[in-house]
Amino acid sequence: MDEKENDKPVWVKWEKKFELGIPIIDEQHKHLVSLCNQLHSEIMMRRSPDGKVWRIALSDALREAVNYTQTHFQLEEKLMVAAGFEQTAKHKKRHQEFIEIISKTLSTFDQVTLQTALDFSKFLYEWILEHIAYEDKLYVKPILEYLKNNQQ
């Protein structure tokens, strides 16, 4: 955690292994990494006895995650379908699992504890490592071929 980004500790460092070579998707993924770092930083560095600061950070992160799912997942899924990616249904299922975790956290927000906030931060971290760095790599070739063949 010794890397710095805008003078704040970086929990998840954007690395080359996360890049897919699809600029719009890479930018959206960078946004998720930034969101994860912001949430973790707020929880770890600005804890208060009454929980107001980390609750605000978690609330902001959840809203951003909802926005992320609405824009990013729709784009990814649209490109996967257009490119004829064979594992689209499986990939969409993983997206749905992500949405369900966020929805569950939102629905129980009044009972959220500091541990829940830390768990959600860890969930985002693991999502980045597992989903972006591995699962999203599976659709890169067909989508890049589709984009190359359909440039106007």
Topology:
Blueprint: E1 4-5, E2 8-9, H1 23-45, H2 52-83, H3 88-107, H4 114-132, H5 140-149
Helix pairs in contact: 1-2, 1-4, 2-3, 2-5, 3-4
Overall description:
There is one protein chain. A two-stranded antiparallel ribbon has the order 1-2. The N terminus is likely disordered. It is 68% helix and 3% strand. 22% of the residues are buried. The chain contains 5 helices and 2 strands; from the N terminus they run E-E-H-H-H-H-H. A hairpin with a 2-residue loop joins strand 1 and strand 2.
Task: Using brief descriptors, characterize the structure shown.
2 strands; single chain; 3% strand; 152 residues; mainly alpha
Oligomeric state, counting identical vs distinct chains: single chain
Instruction: Specify the helix fraction band.
Output: 55-70%
Mean pLDDT across all amino acids: 83
Shape: elongated
Summary of the model, kept short:
This protein is mainly α. The protein contains five helices and two strands.
